[in-house]
Hints:
Layout: H1 3-17, E1 20-21, H2 22-29, H3 33-45, E2 49-52, E3 55-58, H4 68-71, H5 76-87, E4 95-98, H6 102-110, E5 117-121, H7 124-130, E6 136-140, E7 144-146, E8 151-153, H8 155-162, E9 166-171, E10 175-177, E11 181-184, H9 187-199, E12 200-206, E13 218-221, E14 228-231, H10 237-244, E15 249-252
Parallel strand pairs: 4-5, 4-9, 5-6, 9-12, 12-14, 14-15
Antiparallel strand pairs: 1-3, 2-3, 7-8, 10-11, 11-13
Amino acid sequence: MDTEERRRGILDTARRDGSVDVGRLADRFKVAKETIRRDLHALEEHGLVRRTHGGAYPVESAGFETTLATRTTRHVAQKSRIAAAAAELIGDAETVFVDEGYTPQLVAEALPRDRQLTVVTASLAVATVLADAEKTAVLLLGGRVRGGTMATVDHWATRMLAGFVIDLAYIGANGISREYGLTTPDPAVSEVKAQAMRSARRRIFTGVHTKFGAVSFCRFADVGDLEAVVTDTGLPSAEAQRYSLLGPQVIRV
């Protein structure tokens, strides 16, 4: 097996399993750990993985995106804390957009149930979470349903969303960086998110620390468009400060 074949095998494994370990890869491919580290460094240079202590995990791109089911198994405790903190920022908003994705779904679960709210969403999961909330009216955007994320996209969704003026949008992304802003792999998803940003008076990003510095295919917003960024303490305080200099309040929980 040559270097390119080995690196493709490493990437395929990372995408299938969600992460890879240097030691296990060395055993599997029968090469030195230092060789695997060089492979991971090369894959990271091409934006395909992000390295961690002792391994790496795949970066979402135009050719690869994790499913909603996979997202429900990773960083669950951090995502729950982020969602609770984000829900507390609702203020006096009466109309709320909740994005697709597992962290926004947890935000939906944390929204107050003792007051009248109208929630707009493209996510079937979010709509299901809120369907039995007596004081919450749920407007589900129409369109083509993406099986991996169970959310609607395309012009039906964006056209409906463009007709609203929304008090507050809870936005997710596959990556957020100071240079490229908020990104996502699929152009159709990007259009829905971009329209949500345009339709909302206030915009809050929610995402775990692994999203930071990651860059995906489609850019839909700048960091400076956000009122707040809510993440976990895995994002170093110095890096949080750098993001705050672009405009939003950065909250680490």
